[in-house]
Amino acid sequence: MSDSKLSREDLVYMAKLAEEAERYDDMVASVRQLAERNIELNVEERNLLSVAYKNVVGARRASWRVLSSIEAKEGEKSADDKVDKIKAYREKVEAELEDICNELLRVLETHLLDNDSTPEGKVFYLKMAGDYHRYLAEFAVDGSDAKKRSLQANQACAKYEEATRVAARSMDEGVKKEEQGLPPTNPIRLGLALNFSVFYYEIMNKPSEACALAKKAFDDAISELDSLQEEQYKDATLIMQLIRDNLTLWTSDQGDDDKGPDNDGTRVEDLDS
Known about the structure:
With 273 residues, this protein is an all-alpha fold. The chain is 71% helix and 0% strand.
């Protein structure tokens, strides 16, 4: 049976099977086909989409960081012949990253965002779009890529801001369910705040804004923790700990002559989409 004739249940099963086998390119193929059916994905299907793309992109982001580090070290030695080879290899990885990120962004815009009526789904997809525009900005670091970096950063910021508006909409009684936002302790809303603050810190080089955003999300959530059930409590506090870890790192950096991020290779915490 061709993949185009597989049922929704079969595509979900094949995605899970590929995940078990750690064949994430195959997993991406299955979840992409599912998304392209223009249906509202349920929570399990959304998470499969996230896991699939997180793994194929995450592996290449890690490769890119390693290659960039090696390239810089060889450049310091004036080993031009090696630098040329490393640069070519890095650019190959960058091309793969760009293709995968743009593919997911197309799927989100064309098939998923307009077909999800839930606030949680919309925030999930908008956050995901922000994350993948952020990844595209992340590796556009060459001088010739400044315009591309700025474009992707602006698009990431717009998606994160839109997601934040949807997440923070009124939860008052009488407001239609589809028009309500998410509580401050919702893991998707917390993950959004975490990644948006990382974007401000790492891409925009604005540590003060990053700290303010992260602190507000943490303070808003902590005031409502006591009302959560055990499982919800665990999910919320896991992300809140990542936010607090970043705040500790960032405030320490700001105290160091107020220099902000110095790109010294220290990794802040984010929640991969």
